[in-house]
Each structure stands twice: as structure tokens, then as C-alpha cells.
Amino acid sequence: MLLSLVLHTYSMRYLLPSVVLLGTAPTYMLAWGVWRLLSAFLPARFYQAVDDRLYCIYQRMVLFFFENYTGVQILLYGDLPENKENIIYLANHQSTVDWIVADVLAIRQNALGHVRYVLKDRLKWLPLYGCYFPQHGGIYVKRSAKFNEKEMRNKLQSYVNTGTPMYLVIFPEGTRYNPRQTKLLSASQAFAAQKGLAVLKHVLTPRIKATYVAFDSMKNYLDAIYDVTVVYEGKDDRGQRKESPSMTEFLCKECPKIHIHIDRIDKKDVPENQEYMRRWLHERFEIKDKLLIEFYDSPDPERRNKFPGKSVNSKLSIKKTLPSVLILSSLTAGMLMTETGRKLYINTWVYGTLLGCLWVTVKT
After folding, report:
1. Residue 50 contacts residue 39 (beta carbons within 8 Å)
2. What angle do CA 213, 217, 222 make, to 5 degrees?
3. Do 283 and 200 meet the contact criterion of CB atoms below 8 Å apart?
4. Other CB atoms within 10 A of residue 43 CB
5. Angle 74-164-266 from CA coordinates, rounded to 5°
6. What are the chain's domains?
7. Cα-trace Rg, the chain
8. How remote is the C-alpha of 319 from its chain's centroid?
9. Hey, how many other C-beta atoms are within 10 angstroms of the C-beta on 135?
């Protein structure tokens, strides 16, 4: 009985965030859909400005749950500028929560609405959001030979032409690092050795294509590249690095601290030649690997479980996030209180998903 109660209480931790975040999705998509129609004959920059504002409202609600609700401690190291810039954000990839960490940094620069992602192609089939991400500036990419460089360049150039603020998030590893997936790590290390590159332990060998195309397409528009290294604090019973938390586990408050190291690299210090950039990117991941080795494996106990240098405990004010929760929740509750509203809500889920899949199919 007691164990059952404990398990029930544990599951309730992520139930509230899940209900609110998923439950308000149709409301958000309806608001965006109305604006998309109204702005059809307006210059693209007007659509983008309002869309960024709408996106900011929704992501503030997301951060309410992932920061304020969980109570996670955010420790920042390095040099995160106070003012927003046009940047490419490069980070190690280990968890679905990595997408939220980009928001964690962006809101501290007043750039939350400008976050856009380079995404795996299969994510375009997500209900509702799959067709929305490209409308917000996201770019779906396929791996290896199927990578469509021309399409990515054209889309990025269109954003440059319209002056769209850019906070482009890329995970160069292409897939999530998991210390338990030894075959994946071994294959990555073997590939690096074959190419004459340093073998990495705590990150995978980075892929160059998306990073190169993004930088080459926007090099005259960008201010910098942010090289971001993230650690979700926690070790297994043997004191070794454990698998990073999923979104569900994170919302269940299984991660007490996130350590985030930021290295701002001015665009003039980034090589423009693709082969030189390949070496440069791998060197950046060597630096990440050394930071992570120091964090997890340093022989000096006082140097473990932290990055070198001074850390700042950055707390997000609830005043920046709670209003978004109240606005979207109230609009959703109001819609569900009437029969017409409930039909509209359900139809948005059903037909919005179907039309989104149709749109994605046609675009493909």
C-alpha cells in the first residue's frame, strides 16, 4: 500500500506539466493559425515578429515547469553575453532536455522567441508541432548522402534577407550520447581514428555538414558561435556517469543541478573553409571532452562535479514564466467550457494533425 502510494505520488510529479503543456497545444496552434492567415499578404518580417512573440509566450510556460516547478539549480560558467545576438548554438547532445537548455540560456538574453532548431527529419511527423517548427524557422535535415544542402541554404538565406533574429541550435553529434550504448560510442571512436582525429570519451564525433552550411550561409549576418557544454548532475551506484534524464524523469525532479559552460567564439575566429572547419569543430569537441573528463573523472575530488572557473547560480524569476501559464491555461479552460469550444479544441487536435502530416508530405 505504502509503495503504491509512493509510486503514485512520483508519477503525479510529471502529470501536471504534461497535462498543461499538451493540453494548451491546440490553443497555441489556433492562435498561430489565425495569425498565419492574417499575415499571408504581409511582408515576412511582420509574420516572423508576431510568431516570435507567440513562441516566446509558449516557451516561457515550458520553462515554468522545467525550471520553477522542478526547482533545478542552473549553474552557468564562462561568458554568456547579457544582450541578444545572432548566433549559432553548438552543444553536446545527451537528452531530450537539451532542447530546453537552449531556452534556459536564451531567456537570460531576452532572445527566447528567436530560438530555432536544426532537427532530425523524422520529427516532422510530430502531431501539430511537426508542421509548425519549420514555420518558426526550424530546419529538418537528413543524414549523410540524403542531406539537402541547397534547401537548407535557401531557407537560411531567406531569414537573412528578412532580418530574422537568429538563435540557431545545432547538435553536431547528430544523435544522443548514452554511456550505456557502448556500440555507438565505439563506432564513433573508430570513425575518428580512421579520419586521423582525436578519439573522444564523453561526446561523439561531431558531424560537420549542418554547422558548415549554417555558418557559410549566415557568416555576414551572425555575431558569434556559442560553444555550449552541458552536464546533468548525477552518477550511478558505481560513481560513474549515468544516462542523462529524459523529460519525464527531469519533471519528476531527478536532476538537482544543470552545469552549463558557455564559450563565446567571435565569427572572425571561425574558419570558413569546410575542411578547416571540420578540424576546428572536432577541436571544439575535444575541449568539451576535456571539460567532461575533468567533471566526471578528475583525480582531484575538489575538481570533480564542476567545470573549471567561477560558476554563477542563475535563478529564473517566476514573474517571467507564470503569466504565460495563466494566459494559455485560462484560454484553454475557457474554450473547453462551451460545446462549440470543445468541438473546436478536438478538431484542432485531429484535423490539425492530419493537415500537418499532409503539408509535410507535400513539402517532402
Report:
1. yes
2. 110
3. no
4. 10
5. 60
6. 71-316 (3.40.1130)
7. 21
8. 22
9. 15
